[in-house]
Known about the structure:
Helices cover 25% and strands 21% of the residues.
Amino acid sequence: MSRLRIHEWKGFEAVGNLSLIDHPKVAVLNSSQGKQPTGSKPWVSGTVRAYTAIDSDQVAITSVGMNSWELSCHLAQCRGVSQICLVPLKSNNNLEEECEEILSQFDLEPETVCFLGVSSQLGSVKGNWLKRDALAIDLADTVLPVSIRKGGKIENLILDLARQKKVCTDFQAEWEKSEPRQPYYLNPEWIAERFGREMKGWVFHWTRAADGPWPGEKKSNYYRDILASDKEYPRSARLTLERILSEGKIRASSRRIRGKSKVVAFSGLPPSESGRLFTWRKRYARFNAEPFGVGIHPDFAKEIGIQPVVYLRDGRSGGEAPVHLRQSAGIVGDWPRERESRCLGDVDLSILPDEGYRGVTLVEAGS
Length: 367
């Protein structure tokens, strides 16, 4: 049962310490940023500097759903600053449950937060974001713009709504457009020589950078590591592989899986032929996979539940194959070439002998 109760404030659903609304309010503003921030990014360091300027009697306006807002939520908690957290809601969201989750994810104390639910008649998440941004500026007594895109929605809102506000530009940093990552240049001959013979018949789970916390990780830990990082993203594919090996577990995901079952995907392609898997997906602004993974010995793959995918063509149903093993053969792409297998649920590496699995990095040292 939730410990929180919903109140009404000027047409908004409100949860938590409503008295915070009467305090002087500060909004630290950023336009949308790249999905993989680091401590060296100007917008991150600028936001940190802005929070050092917030007085003890002031309340920060924060939000969730985008890293440019969630960093503020984390910094307010770290610096002991109370906050009014604007919560964008979908039509089926329960505000109390959302607030409980935010309290847990960011290690917040209920008395230090007032939550306001934000919903839009547009009925879309992005519509809620625009309403959220406008409300943040409208509520604020002081606006601290940091990394603002020229001609973007935040800049236009500041120009329209912040005329009667105190605007401090001491912490501004240049807004940087997110660029596609450089492709991986792999040496098939080096890979074949290193992995070809001894790993014949193995299946491979190739990981990729996480655009947020790792599965099962709190957002407070994620943003703590962002602030402590330099140039390498602390949830990179390389560090994700290190976590898998240290934890002894490959965590399952339901992303793009029929029936939303959580699975771990593997490819039967040998490492020397796996370069085609590591493509940049412009639509999703991420790699399909990256050349850091875990290989499972064929003698143990079936034993732990790894089974080949059934590829469906011409509207076939898949027969008696479990739903989580059914995969369209593709119209544009040719998915069967990946020789995919899947395991239902997490893969526990600790039950395998040392010779049953191996961490694999296809990038030569120094490249």
